[in-house]
Amino acid sequence: MLKISSLNVNGIRAAQRRGFTDWVSRGRPDIICLQELRAMEHQVPDPVRDMDYHDIYHTAEKKGYSGVGILSREAPLDVCKGIGVDWIDREGRVLMAEFEELTVFSIYAPSGTTGDARQELKMDFLEAFLPFARQYLNRDKPVVFCGDFNICHTSIDIHNPRRNRNTSGFLPEERAWVTELLETGFEDVYRRLHEGEPDLYSWWSYRAASKERNKGWRIDYHISSPELLEAAQKATIEMEWDLSDHAPVTIHYSI
């Protein structure tokens, strides 16, 4: 059984202060995909670097911003940083690690909540990402794209769909993009294992006791090729941990 966890840490240094290595020691995932490191590689806390994991990072050029990482108990056979689009790669948003049985990506899509310019860049990212992802569908290894896509796909994935229908992260064009991604042949593994179940969220605002009231958004995914959906046995959002404003999304695969 292969246990893969994905977590937007909202700053790896802050997450460590909140108990990140305790969470790792307790659950012992085989692979951990991290997003929004908000640190350069040398700033990753020593307790994280000293764990019994191989660690790779793709950090942003801008200090204290974005960045992704993958921690794995098994050493990757190959690593690739970025997707070949200059501004995306400068922001440290896509990281790949290939293993013997599968290929894993850590993905951090831009947020469009700070204004029209960033929303346009978010849509540019999505447009570039779709053909990039498609090329991995028919390869000899299954693939999973883990991470924060900053989009709720359907009304069941957000606590107040009517009020948020014109909000970045739930815009019609963003939701249509997720539909297109899935229609290409990918699977939303967590949702497929929890079909029709409401109130399952992975991010909560720090305001208004949103997590305590479970007024959240499901924006963190395992997007996989069909073979991995068939192998998926158990999917959990680990709400009990307060490592950041996101919760780890963990899936066990029979690999």
What does this entry look like structurally?
The chain is an alpha+beta fold. The chain is built from eight helices and twelve strands. The longest helix has 19 residues, at 116-134. The protein is globular. The mean pLDDT is 97.
Layout of helices and strands:
Blueprint: E1 2-8, H1 12-17, H2 20-27, E2 31-35, H3 46-49, E3 54-58, E4 68-72, E5 78-81, H4 86-90, E6 94-98, E7 103-108, H5 116-134, E8 143-148, H6 172-183, E9 187-188, H7 189-193, E10 220-224, H8 226-231, E11 232-237, E12 249-253
Parallel strand pairs: 1-2, 7-8
Antiparallel strand pairs: 1-12, 2-4, 3-4, 5-6, 6-7, 8-10, 9-10, 11-12
Based on the model shown, name its key terms.
metal-binding, 255 residues, magnesium, globular, double-stranded DNA 3'-5' DNA exonuclease activity, 24% strand, alpha+beta, 12 strands, metal ion binding, 6-stranded mixed β-sheet, Deoxyribonuclease I, Chain A
Compose a concise summary of this entry.
The protein is of the alpha+beta class and 255 residues long. The chain contains eight helices and twelve strands. The strands form two sheets. It has a six-stranded mixed beta sheet with strand order 3-4-2-1-12-11. A six-stranded mixed beta sheet has the order 5-6-7-8-10-9.
Q: In terms of structural class, how would the helical and strand content be classed?
A: alpha+beta
Overall pLDDT score: 97
Termini separation comes to 5 Å
Helix percent reads 25-40%
CATH architecture: 4-Layer Sandwich
Radius of gyration, whole Å: 17 Å
The quaternary organization reads as: single chain
Principal-axis shape: globular
Report the top-level CATH class: Alpha Beta
Number of helices: 8
Beta percentage is 15-25%
Tell me how many strands there are.
Answer: 12
Provide the CATH superfamily.
Endonuclease/exonuclease/phosphatase
